[in-house]
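Researcher: Go.
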Amino acid sequence: MNRKLKLFILLISISATVLFIFLLPNITAISEIWLPFLFFTIIAIIAEHKPVVLPAGGNITVAFPISFVVILVYGPAIAMVLEFFSIIWTIFRKKGSWFKALFNAAQYSLSSGLAGVVYIFTGGVVGKQNFVHYIIPAALCALTYCVVNTLLVTTVISLDSGMSLGKVFRINIREVLPSYLAEAPMGFIMAIIYVHIGIFGILLFFFPLLLARQSFELYTRMRKIYLETIRTLAATIDAKDPYTLGHSERVSHLAVDLAKKLDFAETDIEYLEYAAILHDIGKIGIADSILGKKDRLTDEEYKKIKEHPVIGANIIDSIEFLKKCSKAVLHHHERYDGNGYPQGLKGEDIPKTARLLAVIDAYDAMNSDRPYRKKLSPEDIVQELRDESGKQFDPVIVKAFLSLLQERRIG
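Model: Structure:
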């Protein structure tokens, strides 16, 4: 566990402790509500017992509606205590890392505490009453819980894995967030039912909670299959052409950074990342004797090489979840002046993702040793990009990329 991660976990733990001390004067004595507290603790432990593991690490549970009920009925301080005990007990039973237990207990407690503060601050009243009158404060409470929880989990996974916050969010959170938010109305209804019927009313919601967990699990399995498919396809490129080992990975990282600098939409960045990893997949259809040739290629051999974007696009187009990447792969060797291949597209007619890939692909190729030449110097690479701006490459993208390179050197 790296130092930044440890400091972050300690910061969250201290924040949760400070918030609990702030809320402590208004806490309901647990001795007065020991039976419902015990009941909700057991329910929360059951909900936390089988978390769904997310593709990029971390996990998600269906305990949010239970915490929501406790916030509305008994207040944020009791909800924080409930979260703390349910998480610590669950982790203790599994004999997991105490740092992980500390983070989970702290972040869930902090999420509940802050959500409860927002509920009260916006006019909500804690207790057994008609919560329909406080639907707006309750909605803001649920939104606060989801936002804080999402931010903390995304940050800790980013610090642990080294992935950017945006990438962790795209892989782990973005698709499950609507379902997660959809648990809020369930929690609100559970609070109303609990006030009118009592403990047995909560038990009616166990089946819907299990269905919610199942939907999370199906999503994460699907995402894992997606990512494993991409990694497997990328591995075939490296096995076929060892001289490009690591090329696709480097192109992917640079492409994502440049796309962020150019304010690409999050969805476009995700598919650009996949396209960058797979942009040379079509080389599996090219003979080894051509790929590894150290001498100048003949016209016929070069013609064969020029087929790889079409081969790659056809492979990707046959995989449903990768179809949106196929155009970037197909056109990453088009030239801005219209003299590229395979279709001779020109200027803005070339998809923007393909224009970006063309710059990054060429940069990494010039910055790597190849069978037929040594890599170029940084100065020569920059000069080549400038010379080809408006000819081979989109001048706007070249300008942004050169700026990115300069920022990296300064940093």
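Model: The first strand starts at residue 52 and ends at 53.
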